[in-house]
Design brief:
The chain is about 65% helix and about 0% strand. By secondary structure, the chain is mostly helical. The longest helix is centred in the first third of the chain and has 13 residues. The chain is globular and about 40 Å long. It starts with 8 loop residues before the first helix and ends with a helix. The relative contact order is 0.17.
Amino acid sequence: MKKRKPTHPGMVVRMDVLEPLNLNVTQAAQGLDCSRKHLSAFLNGRARCTVELAVKLAKATDTSAQSWLNM
């Protein structure tokens, strides 16, 4: 049985947060108060979820920072 690669948390943010709210990367970066460059890399699976980003995502989505770090 093949094991599939775990879903990157950036993909979760893109599909479950940005798309339903019809937000682009620039708007999301402004709302999260983070750099567009880092958020774009995160959403595309090229950057990890930092503690700082996890805290900002948790506040924005009413979840825990630990849940974002555990993904």
